[in-house]
Structure prediction request, 310 residues.
Amino acid sequence: MGRDFLNRAVLVAATVLFSIGLTAQSAALFDSEKTSFRRSGWTLSAGLHSFSARPDSTDSFYPIVKSDGSLDTLHWGNWGHEGHRALRLGIGFWQIAKRPVVWDRWSIELHGTRNAAISTFTGLVADADSVLVPNAMVDSGRSNLTTEFTFRLYRAFEIIPDFFIEGQLGVGWDREWGGQFSRTGPDSMFVPREQPVLDRIALELGVGAGVRTRSGRYLRILATYDAVQLSPFAEEGDGRVQWYSGQFQPWNLALQWDLLRAKPEVDCAKPPAKDRPAEVLFGSDMEKAEKKRAKDQKKRARKQRKRRRF
Prediction:
């Protein structure tokens, strides 16, 4: 119940923030330093990744119909599912939109973490004589490294100067490197399950809050979760990942440092940058004007010499 409520809360919050973004103009928040900084830069993140079991326990009952029409129960008991948490680090590139309408920034980010989960069945399992006896079954899985490559759109709403809240929408590709999955126990008495996939694509939602710490520097705290698993499509049509008999949903809570790249210092001996026309000191226009003045002065000097001769 608590997780479902949190899911709805994040979804509603993200929707409200994007709706506010349609009327809230946050360009000044990110463009006020544009004379000193570029419209793009690097973003670094560090935080917590959670692979949460949803639900954390499920009942399991597996009867089959025998040739004589009677029922034979192969197992009857309960699954307990447990996901794990891990450190999550990332780096990316972000840019400010020139004309923000629905979104005001976008980013491409690569994160690294680790997924691990275990599901344990405890209950009664049929033996060779079809007698139910206490037994256990264990599904386990983990990766040496889980990479997340994500494209994100953001919309900020400034609360007070330099402080803002934001909504985030993203599409991410997750890859399990060195994935190790196993089933131990009387698996012939359980529904066969395919080995979990190593590649997934998901639609991601998130909300956050941030502050401009100084010119061209932003610190944000961002909470995100997988709202819909697109490939392979989740059994329940949501963001949960199927690992054997368990379903797990990725969550992330991270601190994000956004750094705008500084523009280079102006060199008067070189042609000015195209985006700094106001800083032209010795540009081509001034050189043409100077040449024209020198030419006019030579003409006047020649005319004066001719007059003196006569």
Remarks:
- The first helix runs from residue 2 to 21.
- Residues 20-26 have pLDDT under 50 and may be disordered.
- Residues 288 and 294 are 10 Å apart (CA to CA).
